[in-house]
Write a structure and sequence with these properties.
Elements (H helix, E strand, L loop, with lengths): L6 E6 L8 E5 L2 E4 L4 H18 L10 E9 L29 H15 L8 E11 L14 E9 L5 E2 L1
Parallel strand pairs: 4-5
Antiparallel strand pairs: 1-6, 2-3, 4-6, 6-7
Length: 166
Amino acid sequence: MTTEPVLTVTVHGLPAPQGSKSHKGKGRMVESSIHVAPWREAVVWAMRQQIIRQRGWRPLDGAVEASMVFSFVRPKGHYGTGRNARVLKPSAPARPAVMPDLSKLARSTEDAITTAGGYRDDALLVSYRRLEKRYVTDAGSVADVLDVQGAVIRLYRVEPDGEVTP
């Protein structure tokens, strides 16, 4: 089984979840988070830039496996004060087990990949190789964790026999 992705994209920006929509009257629905549109635009832009580099790219059409690693800045409360302002407190959590929901981050990103032409439809996703939230402080020690907020997205083709190929 080959493990190389057919497309790898780094997106900078605040990852935002696609969650519920609220009804504003007269048939108008609005995303519950104001950060969804900028995040989706950042994913579309980064994905299209990478697709341009892949001469002859056509949206994936068939079973797709994905990897998404979302990187977040730690809250200031995770650090000490004064001369310890750059030192993590012993009580600081190792992982961002807080909002936003990982599945909702994936949903907004999946839709943006469809818009950008990474794959024909997000219904083609059959599995995730990796789906994580991390803090930027893990950059350099954990693969695909950025030193700024954003995400590393990898797409893989899945062969009919279940094997993943480049």
